Amino acid sequence: MQARSTQLPSTFNQDAARAIVLPEYGFVAVEGANACQFLQGQLSCNVPEAAPDRVLPGACCTIKGRVISSFLVWRPTPERIVLRLRTDIIDSTIAVLNKYAVFSRVRIAPVQPGLCCIGLLGGDLNAALAPWFAAAPATMGGVATHDGMHLVRRDERGMAMELWLEACLLYTSDAADERSSVDLGGRRIIKKKKEDQQGGRRKQT
Q1: Residues 148, 166: contact at Cβ < 8 Å?
Q2: Nearest 5°: phi and psi at 128?
Q3: Taking the complete model, does pTM exceed 0.90, yes or no?
Q4: N or C, fewer C-beta in 10 Å, the chain?
Q5: What is the Cα–Cα distance from 58 to 74, expressed in whole angstroms?
Q6: What are residue 115's DSSP bridge partners?
Q7: What SS3 class is residue 161?
Q8: What number of helices (H) and strands (E) belong to the chain?
Q9: What would the pLDDT profile of 94-136 be if each residue is shown by its tens digit?
Q10: Taking the alpha carbons of 135, 144, 169, 161 in that order, is the dihedral positive or negative?
Q11: Are strands 168-172 and 181-184 parallel, antiparallel or unpaired?
Q12: Residue 60: CB partners within 8 Å, gap ≥ 6?
């Protein structure tokens, strides 16, 4: 699936900056009191080093060392670990991990509500993202979080980042609700709404 690229708005202060929707990436959550210990025995990286402000590259391999799947490992809470990986290997990765999950009492499933992944490219993304993030990640693999948005630095020079957004939809700017959205490359990122079951009102998630 080909990613869609669009020019960022002038508020990013970078003529060359681009926002690229990356639908080929998805997210899997591993949850439970033993999530970290369980994955430490299954993955190639040192899982305890993952943190709310840091991702690690990791892989799931066979006993002989053949890579089954590779991903970024993020640990937003002590009992929840998120894997960012290609959507076409989500089901197979869950199936492999679930063979051993029952013994560790962990739950493995796609992240719900879903996360969407947007790639950001530009010469000075730190300044470009200042309206939303007081401080962008200072090192490769660093993570900054603000209002349900997670900014992940993907290179040493700070010219490539990923933006992970919780429960979002992409709309054109003219269809946006200004109060619940962020303008990103001519598209609005709008948090999903759900019905209030008791009063029938719509509320922000």
Answers
A1: yes
A2: -65, -35
A3: no
A4: N
A5: 10
A6: 166
A7: strand
A8: 3, 16
A9: 999 999 888 888 999 999 878 889 999 888 787 778 888 888 8
A10: positive
A11: unpaired
A12: 42, 43, 44, 67, 68, 69, 70, 71, 93, 96, 97
